[in-house]
């Protein structure tokens, strides 16, 4: 082929991929690059025969051009939906990301085998080494439940696969990784949310899972009854049940002597101290900022004590800052991944817009940040949260480590516009999310991607 012809076909292929991306409602420039160490393999015939019980239910076979990730012995099935993408858009999106699902049920009820059932794929964090991945083309919950042909086909292949591999037909115990689970349930446990994900749009939806398991002859269990749901280890924390099991309140207001303030910029007032759980000592080398999502200081303190969480310092709406723990080095629980090394600052307010309008409060936050950075030699930048050396938003910590009761949307407390204002107000350098080191890697609990299988 001539150089001119080769250039023409390469250009045509690029235009086609961009068109597929636009049809899918995605920007190819927002997608993370596939890992450089992985080589794409060309499509080839599927190697392993289907289990005999599944043969008559899988009507079509297509080979995904994705890396072989090793052998699989399934103990679980994870059910996904394509979040609105069509069959062809899904295939293109999977191959672009070097991801895959084993079985894909189209809107007309036809089931495609895309990967051998004894090979691993990358599709759901925490499960890929043990799970068969089954996806349905379409949206979430009601959009899927309206399609009888697709729902019946999906329930049938899930039932037959579970019977063949001896997989329990229940979603009761996701921690054991034995059963049939939604991708939503897997994300709640191990993270891997997509950027901007909404609570009501996590595929395939629990209403769909309830009906799927019923038709497959299984047992659906509500979130409140999932085994171990209130325990530690979940990316999306559970706020139900008796929160006093998180520990006894043994320090703070009325329990320990009133300490002197540790900074010039803060006060210690007995009535404004916080009761908290003694969790030991930290080595401060960073700061994390939050907003309280309350209108008043007292509401915030009540919520901290009830939830057995809380900050080191709270800045009230009048611009006064209070040290609410005995020592700045006392460990509190406020932002997963940072609690061992960061001073936690709560700013009283319902949201970022309220904080941005309060100049007195913002001035005090800048003053506290500046003094903490001087005291502990903390860099005045949010560039690298992995180091825990800097000034970060709770949102940045959530995106990296999760471990929160709220992981929805594109931004979190106290808001990145507010972070830019206070970091630069303290004479530091604010770094945009797209420039955070490693932001497009799979290590983050909220991935820098707008679509997942």
Helix-residue proportion: 25-40%
Shape: elongated
Query: Treating each run of at least 4 consecutive H or I residues as one helix, how many helices?
Result: 12
- % residues in beta strands: 5-15%
Taking strands numbered 1, 2, ... along the chain, how are they ordered across the largest sheet? 1-4-3-5-2-6
Poorly predicted ranges: 1-8, 17-40
Beginning-to-end CA distance, first to last residue:
37 Å
Question: Main beta sheet, described?
Answer: 6 strands, mixed
CATH superfamily assignment of the largest domain? Peptidoglycan recognition protein-like
Taking all Cα atoms into account, the compactness measure Rg is 25 Å
Assign the CATH class of the largest domain: Alpha Beta
Number of discrete domains: 3
CATH architecture name of the largest domain: 3-Layer(aba) Sandwich
Mean pLDDT: 90
Q: According to CATH, what is the topology of the largest domain?
A: Lysozyme-like
Order of helices and strands: HHEEHEEEHHEHEHEHEEEHHEHHE
Which secondary-structure class do the elements indicate? alpha/beta
The strand count comes to: 13
Give a structural overview.
This protein is of the alpha/beta class. It folds into 3 domains: 1-30; 34-225, Peptidoglycan recognition protein-like (Lysozyme-like), CATH 3.40.80.10; 243-447, Lysozyme-like, CATH 3.40.80.10. 28% of the residues lie in helices and 11% in strands. The chain is built from 12 helices and 13 strands. It has a 6-stranded mixed sheet. The protein has a 5-stranded mixed sheet with strand order 10-9-11-8-12. Strand 9 and strand 10 (321-323) form a beta hairpin. Helix 1 crosses helix 3 (87-97) and helix 5 (148-165) packs across helix 7 (206-215). The longest helix has 21 residues, at 3-23. It is elongated.
